[in-house]
């Protein structure tokens, strides 16, 4: 298994490029890992799980769901999953970045599982310099992981259609939603901070569809 050389990524493994399989080994999730050509991806997606949830079977199920999402994306994105025993360290690798104050406070306090979507690997990502980002939030995923299957499928379709997911906020401003799901997506976007990044509460999308 090839280990990532970047220090900020050392507690994570990839479900994206290369081998994309999830194994159950004595109740513990492990993942194959290959980073060959992975720096050419359009999106890097880092799953962040609060350390409070270590050992929860439902969280294992959600991580598996995201691993399958990464597999379905193929070479469209690099989906990076935290090692089960290193949730705190991987969360810290995200929160220690130099964020705008409101975003830094939010990330430090939240217990929601979320995914950071960026256009480069985490070690090169610099929000202080205005690198664009997207925070996909999964409230309640630790107790009900499968509520997000439909939304993840919709996101997968957006990416496979080569739609720029960083443009969701712009589509909201221009009122140019393509369908009901996209309309719910853009209407749930909250700017954080300004033009460089924004946050989407995916549970809000689910509630809006009912």
Task: Explain what this protein looks like in three dimensions.
By secondary structure, the chain is α+β, with helices and mostly antiparallel strands. It has one domain (7-208). 33% of the residues lie in helices and 20% in strands. The chain is built from seven helices and nine strands. The strands form two sheets. The chain has a seven-stranded mixed β-sheet, with helices on both faces. A two-stranded antiparallel ribbon has the order 2-3. A hairpin with a 2-residue loop joins strand 2 (22-25) and strand 3.
Q: Please state the structural category.
A: alpha+beta
Distance between the termini: 43 Å
Poorly predicted runs are 1-8, 14-40, 186-195
Radius of gyration: 16 Å
How many strands, which pairing sense, and closed or not: the largest β-sheet?
7 strands, mixed
What is the spatial order of strands in the main beta sheet? 1-5-4-6-7-9-8
Total helical segments: 7
- Percent of residues in β-strands: 15-25%
Can you give the helix content as a percent range? 25-40%
Described by the principal axes of the CA atoms, the overall outline is globular
Multimer state: single chain
Mean pLDDT score, rounded? 73
The total number of structural domains is: 1
Helix and strand element order: EEEEHEHHEEHHHEEH
Number of strands: 9
Give the gist of this structure.
33% of the residues lie in helices and 20% in strands. By secondary structure, it is an alpha+beta fold.
């Amino acid at each position: 298994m090839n280990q990532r050389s970047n220090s900020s990524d050392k507690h994570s493994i990839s479900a994206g490029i290369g081998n994309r399989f999830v194994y159950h080994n004595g109740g513990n999730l492990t993942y194959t890992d290959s980073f060959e050509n992975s720096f050419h991806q359009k999106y890097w997606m880092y799953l962040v799980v609060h350390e409070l949830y270590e050992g929860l079977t439902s969280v294992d199920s959600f991580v598996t769901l995201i691993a399958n999402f990464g597999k379905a994306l193929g070479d469209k994105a690099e989906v990076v999953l935290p090692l089960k025993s290193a949730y705190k360290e991987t969360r810290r690798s995200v929160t220690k970045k130099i964020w705008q104050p409101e975003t830094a406070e939010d990330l430090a306090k939240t217990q929601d599982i979320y995914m950071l979507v960026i256009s480069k690997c985490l070690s090169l990502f610099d929000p202080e310099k205005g690198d664009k980002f997207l925070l996909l939030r999964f409230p309640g995923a630790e107790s009900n992981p499968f509520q997000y299957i439909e939304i993840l499928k919709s996101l997968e379709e957006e990416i496979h259609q080569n739609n720029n997911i960083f443009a969701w906020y712009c589509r909201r401003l221009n009122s140019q939603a393509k369908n009901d799901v996209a309309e719910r997506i853009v209407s749930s976007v909250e700017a954080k901070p300004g033009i460089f990044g924004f946050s989407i509460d995916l549970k809000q999308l689910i509630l809006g569809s009912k």
